[in-house]
What does this fold into?
Amino acid sequence: MALHKDEAIVLFKRSYGESDKIVRLFTLSSGKVAAIAKGANKSRKRFANTLEPFNRIRVEYFEKYGRGMVRIENADIVETNSGIEKSLKRACTAGFFVEFVDRLTKERERHEDLFNVLAEILEGIRGAEFTYDDILHYQLRMLGILGFMPNFHTCVYCGQAMAADEKIFFSRERGGILCPKCAPSLPHQVCTEGVIEGIVSVQQANGNAAPGFQAVWRCAENGPPYLNNGFERAAQDIMEGFMTFHLDVEFKSYRILKRLIV
Amino acid sequence: MSVFYPAPIERLIENLTKLPGIGRKTATRLSFFLLNAKDSYITELATSLVDIKEKIRLCSICFNITDTDPCEICIDARRSRSTVCVVEESSHMMVIESSYPGYFRYHILHGVINPIEGIGPDEIRIKELQERIEKEDIKEVIIATNPNIEGNTTAHYIGEILKPLDVRITRIASGVPVGGDIVYIDSLTIKSSLDNRKNL
It folds into this structure.
């Protein structure tokens, strides 16, 4: 039986039995870990407020059989979830990203980069409500870390580099854009001109200005005006189609978040 | 060696194991207790089981579980008609009622906003609360959801949608428990108790 000390973000909690809690933690050193906190609902001393979703905690846990559910011995708060409850959109955005990590990572798969991005996201949401650009940026960043980044730069069939105005065909099945020559022979969706470029500029923003950051083209005086109105819907269509096809998961919090974005 | 009981006992054991916290061993013990119990007790037990399904429903005003509609609390003339206490579940209402009996009328949400579980405002009775406040002469809404992330999100959301209405919205206090020792209280609770301190 080994005692581990780690830092973690609480992804999920559920009461179990009379006084126990089952949680899923995203730890810095061991990735996703399912854990049980004995007596967590009764003892306010040991786990008071710590095992709440979106909290960043320091945790001590015992691992008994190697790969089963671990037993939490102690937990202290590093960063609370305070601020996320201030609006429905903040709670849904935090829920979406936490679910994203929970559903798309395997247990015991170490993802230090993903941990840091998730911590950055939660810190951002605690401070301010995310714009759609923030959400899209981090969504793409997480997809990139997990190796699912769609290809928005070259034709996914023939590999040809494309000019901005040619980027209007998107293939969810192949996970990227198609050139005008390849598009007729493969299933695809036609996007409004500039949407793909818009997504790319959001992706490349580095998140330095997040939260509340807006892609450069939104602020530009000569930026395409139709993007300001229809970009969210068009980008969502592309991302939803891609994620449904390749990841085959439906995010519960996204169903609610979607209504708040558009 | 597996034991085979007569079919009716086997069926009863199977049904009892569906209850939370009851395994096959306990179910078998309960089945034999019922087998040896008096007929009058068995009839009463069976009737009470059928009754909770047939007679219990939700109050059309506060959504409390009740056998009469409106429920006894909603028609109680001694209670304040201007204050509504919003709680997550009927069991929470019972707890408040046991320490603050006969004061408020209630509104049971039947859940809290929890995006991770796919529960949004439309999945709980928030719209009904809004309609109720627009219709009735309510002056104060006390939000008594749990002080965790889900409860607080729900409280903020309710506060936001009720803001345009002419109603005082209050939240139950959270902080140092009565009889508690500050040395053993966690930092979040201390912070909350200081944020919500009151004049003496």
Notes: Chain B touches chain A at residues 21, 113-118, 120-121, 148-149, 152-153, 155-157, 160, 177, 184-189 (CB under 8 Å).
